[in-house]
Amino acid sequence: MDRRGALGALGALGAGAGLLGLSGCSTDNDQLAKQAGSGQGYVSGDGVVTQIAPGERKEPLDLAFTLLDGKRADLKQWRPRAVVINLWYAACPPCRREAPELVKVAQKYKGRAEFLGVNVRDQKAAAQAFIDTFAIKYPVMLDADGRMVSLLSAILPPQATPSTVVLDAQGRAAARIVGRVESSTLTGVIDDALQG
């Protein structure tokens, strides 16, 4: 083997070792992840918050959709409350870490803010297992046709999961959080949305 061939083989071996190291984040012992499928493919942000000043907010977001329980809903029906839209899927590790935070904040803001979970990937059984595991009481929809993700595409980067958008009382995007959300951050964002 000549020198160029040896260097190429070493490069391929190094790349393979790097991929093997990345595969160390496994879901082998996670029953929820097994039911949902592979946890690979999510692109998680770092929880960066972007708030939009009231004068810079675009038109209200409007979309009618079917919830996981079969009921019909519309973003308009929740006005004048703030609306928290959270995109997730069951095998996404940061989605599972933030779920208890979302449940806690949803309970705190009951009557003042509506929460909508948007499952961007799973079949109904995997989504329901996630909902049951984390005792999620707020409405959840499956976005199999991508309509909600499409509606939010001007606000959120594609494939950023988990992501959260907070709408103000008029239904306009007031803030986005790309990545896992913490309850203290979300509380502040909702308070700001309710004021503006």
Automatic annotation (TrEMBL):
Molecular function as annotated in GO: oxidoreductase activity
Coiled coil: none
Domain Thioredoxin: 52-195
Pfam families: Redoxin (PF08534)
UniProt entry keywords in alphabetical sequence: Cytochrome c-type biogenesis, Disulfide bond, Redox-active center, Signal-anchor, Transmembrane
GO biological process: cytochrome complex assembly
SUPFAM superfamilies: Thioredoxin-like
GO cellular component: cell envelope
Designated name of the protein: Redoxin family protein
Phylogenetic classification of the source organism: Bacteria, Bacillati, Actinomycetota, Actinomycetes, Micrococcales
